[in-house]
Amino acid sequence: MKIDINEQSIEIDEKSNIEQLLVRLDSPLKGSAIAVNQKIISRSEWAHYQLKENDQVSLFQAIAGG
Amino acid sequence: MLTDAEMLRYSRHLLLEDVGELGQKDLKKGKVLIIGMGGLGSPAALYLAAAGVGSLVIADFDCLEVSNLQRQIAYATGDIGGDKVALMKHRLEALNPEIRVRSINREMDREQLLMELMMVNLVLDCTDNMASRQMINAACVEAKVPLIVGAAIRFEGQLMFFDHSQPDAACYHCLFPDSEEQTLNCSNSGVLGPVVGTIGTMQALEAIKHITGLPSGIKNKLKLFDGKTLEWQTFAINKDANCSVCGNKK
Q1: Domains: count for chain A
Q2: CATH code assigned at A11
Q3: Which of residues 43-62 of B touch A (CB under 8 A)?
Q4: Residue B185 predicted with pLDDT over 70
Q5: What is the pLDDT of residue A31?
Q6: Is the whole-model pTM more than 0.90?
Q7: Per the CB < 8 Å rule, is A31 touching B186?
Q8: Domain locations in chain B as residue ranges
Q9: How far is CA B164 from CA B18, B30, B148, B172, B249, in A?
């Protein structure tokens, strides 16, 4: 199925969860935050949050600078 | 009551229907702790002092270095080597003698921070590292003090407002549960002055709105700022029931 990640369309397996998506993207789990359709998904939900067709996923890093 | 001098100084606030004399009196009674006197803290502290927030507590333990001056606009070249909080206190008092400024020139531990939180209504996190951010968040959750968090790196900024006086408030840890320093900071990634300045300025704006009782559009939200496109993205943060800092499992 197709989802958008940071405004780029990608193909992922049906019923992928967020953790599987990050592994697929080879993205570090630590320091990352994920939003699906403009809602932050807590880290504790990543393993069982199932993505759906056309979900708009935003992936970004914590920044500490100031 | 506002004095004649204050009426004159804050006349542009008094003209605003949403601030007015009542709002200015609220600002005068306001007590804000600003932690970190760098690129975020510079504009945040200057704006809150200029606005007449009656009591500012500023904390930092760094000396000013030449590489700070590219973005930390409260300081001057002749200040290099001085303690940031001492320089900033001097600067704020010169800007507005009507307010009180107290400085904390050391790294606070949790106990000291909790003590300081008893004396303020609002905290601005303007720090530059993850460990401080997590500690400030946890203390504000515990003390139920509202927290406005800013961060910036490269061309990117992040802004959040967690009103810990409200039971439904999410917290910084719900969003970023990692405390290790794998995150990006100004000294390893670089940052553009106006980007960090924009976020610090937004922290001051939200602080003024909070103190004067104006509603905030960003509570329990994360705003991401892109300095290249000038676009803001907004994400809702729900309180994580499993959060080890603010959730049921703490």
Answers
A1: 1
A2: 3.10.20.30
A3: none
A4: no
A5: 84
A6: yes
A7: no
A8: 13-236
A9: 24, 17, 10, 11, 17
CB-based contacts of A32: which residues, under 8 Å, 6+ apart? A22, A59, A60, A61, A62
Q: Which two tokens stand for residue B240?
A: 């994580």
Residue A33 lies in a domain: yes
Q: What distance in Å separates the CA atoms of residue B224 and residue B157, rounded to the nearest whole number?
A: 6
- ipTM score of complex: 0.93
Q: Count the helix, strand and coil residues of chain A and give each as a percent rounded to the nearest 5.
A: 20, 40, 40
Is B183's CB within 8 Å of A33's CB?
no
Give the model's pLDDT for residue B248.
Answer: 74
Separation of CA B201 from chain center? 9
List CB contacts (< 8 A) between A63 and chain B: 151-153, 156, 158, 183-185
Give the per-residue pLDDT at A6: 94
CB contact under 8 A, B242 and A44: yes
Per-residue tokens: B150: 């800013």
**Tens digits of per-residue pLDDT, A34-44?**
999 999 999 99
Contacts with B174 from chain A: Cβ below 8 Å: 40, 42
Residue appearing with tokens 């400024």: B101
The CATH label, of 3.40.50.720, 3.90.230.10, 3.40.630.30, 3.40.190.10, for the domain at B13-236 is 3.40.50.720
Whether residues B178 and A30 touch (CB distance < 8 A) is answered with yes
Residue A29 to chain B, least CA–CA distance (Å): 10
- The domain of A35 spans 2-61
